[in-house]
Amino acid sequence: MSTHEKIEREIARLSQKKRKERTTQEKVRLLQLKLYLKAKQEKKYKFYILYDKIFLHYVLKEAYNRCKRSSGNSPGIDRQTYTDIRQYGETKFLREIEEELRQRSYKPQAVRRVMIEKENGGERPLGIPTIKDRVVQQACKIVIEPIWEADFDNSSHGFRPKRSAHGAIREIRDNLKSGKQTVYDADLSKYFDTIPHDKLLIALKERIADPRVLDLIKTWLKVPIVEKDGRYTGGRKNRKGTPQGGVISPLLANIYMNLLDRLVNKPGGYFSGEGIRMIRYADDFILMAKHINQETLVRMHGYLARMGLILNTEKSKLVEAREESFDFLGFTFRYDRSIFKNGTRFWNIMPKAKSRKKIRQKVNEMLKKRGHFNTQMLVYELNPMITGWMNYYRVEKVSYTQVAFRELEEYLRYRLNRYYNRKSQRKSRLFGKQAFEILVRDYGLVRPYRTSGIRPVNARR
Description:
Residues 97-333 form the Reverse transcriptase domain. By secondary structure, this protein is of the alpha+beta class. It contains 18 helices and 11 strands. It is globular, with a radius of gyration of 25 Å.
């Protein structure tokens, strides 16, 4: 059965249900499937009436639930949290948003900016909108995302439904095995901060002809940003950038980069004629081919310049993968010699050294920060950290993670034994014992080496 037939069958199944019997998720699913199917069937169709769908009650309710699940309880500039909204009344809160959107009186508030640490030791800005603005952005995303999903290239893996970094890693592995072993690892400088608003809106107008939706998106692009010291930046005079942290920002970033996806991966185009394939995850992308010449790189630089984007020439590099390893999305790709199969070579895909070091640092910092732990609380804190890291780096039948997982287990054994044996004032019953083994056996601590990484956690608050 084709994807098209599956979608039509799902639409028929949901449509047969009485409207009152459909759950909020089913109503949203039906709306999205219809929008996706229309966009898929008519590649040049422009959607003229979308705004009224954004403030449908079930769309706003689903948007609120998604925000509550994924965005944490960090407040925006108004300091309002989900706890405050529950006390105020969630239904009342959503009804007020619905009315503001209906009357077109909705105005987003300034975005609170915080700085978060990067893997290389620097910092990157993260914008935190108010919960109200997150809900409206999520509602808008629910409506317009399926339209663009019908257009996005299969080589785009980041911030998309049912896609992840694992898909990009598998595609890279397949390309390497097929002989595309010349890799151009590109690095865009401050992509989210440099997207030109005028060109982004042109890209949006390829599919969206409802001026009310376009105006709504423009208000988010022009919203002021409150810096840590209280200064206001951006605002109406701002001509570029989408605030990182906004719910809709990743989708807008994908819509703009889709222009490049189409240029590079278009059948019959210059790049495909050169045997080049682009794999992208948000603003991170690589070109892969049997050979990449200088003209190809000049063309790529030219396209990016026309899009108003800046390529970091110091960090971007051309690599012959058989001779030199390269990193992408936290993985290292290396052509290694097997120690078991008569020295045959294979593509070794594993967590890169910086990431392995970072997870050890996180464990160490947590133990230092917390001081004396209740044993159950210790396991409760450690397990999500360990399983999250393992689940990201475990790409079935692709990545070789056991060495990295064994290294993590050895560190946990050493660090936890040391942690309990150094308690001089409040000695627990684990003092002087093999604490790691006891925590695994009796408290459900995840054991990284040769396990699924998903074990029942017995510890409770």
